[in-house]
Amino acid sequence: MKWERLLSIPILAVFLLMGFVYYTTLFVSIEDWVGLQSSGGSFHALAFTFLASYSLFSFFVCVLTDPGHVPSSYVPDVEDRELSDQEFRRNVTHQRKCEICSTYKPRRCHHCRTCRRCVLRMDHHCRWINNCVGYWNYKAFFILVLVATVASIYSTVTCGISVLGLSITLGSLLCWHIYLMANNMTTIEYYEAVRARWLARKSGQSYRHPFNLGVYRNVTSVLGPNMLKWLLPTAVSHLKDGISFRIAHDTRQTA
Questions:
Q1: In sequence order, what are the residues at sequence separation of 6 or more whose Cβ sits closer than 8 angstroms to the Cβ of residue 187?
Q2: Best CA proximity match to 233, nearest among 224, 225, 244, 241
Q3: So which residues are the catalytic ones?
Q4: Palmitoyltransferase DHHC domain: from which residue to which, for each copy (predicted)?
């Protein structure tokens, strides 16, 4: 049952941290600063409550959404016409068999040893949501990090140095995932690309991440084409099956 994911010590720690920051910001900092009964205090209390509530909602979506599993009937198409480079095609075909599950897996799919299954477009396993971050919940995860960063900065401004470390940590994580999204990468693919670039340089070639379609297309592939729904963690109607992805042609060019 997906609700059982909430029964973990890291998730309890997240709830406690959220509660501590919320209480400290409202009933200590804002109360001492302008007073909760004043118009300014009420405004700040409502603004921070909105950010905290939105963070909590996004957190629940991350925890309870299945990141994506491989259909039992899936068989790779080795004649994929989008892959023009023969060597790249052979490498991808070789990597499509999961040695642990003994089944085929689509491109960008990886096996999670914690979840004990293959996950579509797996980014990483996050212990703080007791779930993998994958195809179906990556948008919610990104929004969670974004809103939580804004909330922590808001709290830092009112509370001072007590939550500065949290703001720096979340801000760094947000910048990392903005970079990944802008390049249409997962965390796993980033480290794979580091090795691929090194190998390409050794052979006098240059490497380009095959799923990098340009910043705008990369962003809309995660957040969706409708900008009004970019900050809605449950607005994922633009997502397809998580098995096939558009790729950029000519992934390798002579330097």
A1: 123, 124, 180
A2: 224
A3: 126
A4: 94-163
